[in-house]
Amino acid sequence: MLPTTEFALLRRIATEQSMGRAPSLVAGVVRDGELVWSGARGFVGDEAPDNDTQYRLGSITKSLVAALIMRLRDEGRLDLNDQVDKHLPGTSLGDRTIAQLLAHTGGLTSESPGSWWERSEGGDWDELAAGLTPQELKHRAGRRFHYSNSGYGVLGEVVARLRGHSWLDALRAEILQPLGMSRTSPHPEGKHAQGWAVHPFADVLLPEPAPDAGAMAPAGQLWSTVHDLARWTAFVGGHTGEVLHPDTVAEMREVATVDDGDAWTAGYGLGFQLARVDGRRLAGHTGSMPGFLACTLTDPATGTGALFLANTTAGVGPLGTTVDLIGIADEHEPKLPAPWRPSPVPAGLLALTGLWHWGPAPFHLRLLPGGWLNLSPVNGNGRASRFRPLDESGDSWLGLDGYYAGETLRVVRDAEGNPHHLDLATFIFTRTPYDPTAPIPGGVDEAGWRDR
């Protein structure tokens, strides 16, 4: 990046490390799938940390576990609407579904029963399951967002049962190795930062423990580096390699629930935290464990993401800093739009374009790059959606956005094979308002249009 941009980014993390009194922190900016800037402040031992220094990820671990669940879904091994008991018989989770656990809407208790799991040696699945009694179901399923570390302990066991080996083995084989995340591990390996608590009223430190969380490990066990977390940040933005289809990751980024009311700024998808900040819609996850704070966020609209890792229990703001890094990068070096150039039109699609009417309301149907369609109201007010082809006929299309997401648009042709009308979830679109030759529900008055 430009020297002025790099200095602005460095100044932001330097201020955070100094004002927040963090022993050390590292950060990075990702653009279009690549780490384009990284910086570090403070010390690990007597040396500055670098892109290969491990820090604990905390709850960012949850997003990787969610990706394992989505792989199982895409393979047909489970359905997101499956009740947990289908895969883990004998639990007390009742009608809680896989999707609800992913999105923290299952009503399950936030923390595992017993002592504070983040600072305690963890037990096995049987111990966790025994503690999840009916009394640990705090809310009706689907009622509200209630963050649950326990829910991800359950999801880790679902992965283990369906794969026939531990969730960690599945993670290594299915995500870490394919993405080249060789420095992400359940325990520190090689160069790593010690987790510290900083005294609130004096500049002294207290080491924090880092026990194995056992069955709760899927909620926050992993350690990683700038290099590896940058690869994961790119993954969240859609650079998924062969691990998941980009459409599946986009589904994970969709809002499943909100955390702060009608005009939401914070929400949750299927394993990703979501935030709306200054017109941006960001996806990723924060993380905290005793001695560590972390964050990764990406803006799929611009392709810019950022990450943050620090070895302190409190004091710095990982979310705010990460948001600021994205903003600084895009403000100093805004991404230029790709130059427009003509592109080929698949056979027959040009005849679909132009003016259509839903009743008296005019709509424009336009071609998009890649052979997709965009149907939108002429005046900008009303239901709009993009559509992708369902087959090679050019006559069946799947809605991708808004009201028509998941609905089918069918092109109905006349005897000569020309597009006559569109059938979209029973709504009929015609070239002229209420075309009497089309199957308008309820029919069209024989007298036609009149002045009174």
General description of the model:
The protein has 452 residues and is α+β, with helices and mostly antiparallel strands. It is built from 10 helices and 20 strands. The protein has helices at 3-20, 60-74, 84-87, 98-103, 125-131, 149-163, 167-179, 226-236, 246-253, 318-332; strands spanning 24-31, 34-42, 55-56, 196-198, 205-207, 223-224, 257-258, 266-268, 273-277, 280-289, 292-299, 304-310, 354-358, 361-368, 372-377, 385-389, 396-399, 408-413, 419-424, 427-430. Strands 2-1-12-11-10-9-8-7 form an 8-stranded antiparallel sheet, with helices on both faces. Strands 13-14-15-16-17-18-19-20 form an 8-stranded antiparallel beta barrel. Strands 3-6 form a two-stranded antiparallel sheet. A hairpin with a 2-residue loop joins strand 10 and strand 11 (292-299). Helix 2 (60-74) crosses helix 7. The protein is globular, with a radius of gyration of 26 Å. The N and C termini lie far apart (66 Å). The mean pLDDT is 95.
Number of helices: 10
Helix content: 10-25%
- The gyration radius over C-alpha positions equals 26 Å
Structural category: alpha+beta
Major sheet attributes: 8 strands, antiparallel
Q: Within the largest sheet, what's the order of strands?
A: 2-1-12-11-10-9-8-7
Beta-strand fraction estimate = 15-25%
Provide mean pLDDT, rounded: 95
Following the backbone from N to C, one meets helices and strands in this order, namely HEEEHHHHHHEEEHHEEEEEEHEEEEEEEE
Please tally the β strands and state the result.
20
Gap between N and C termini: 66 Å
Low-pLDDT residue spans: none
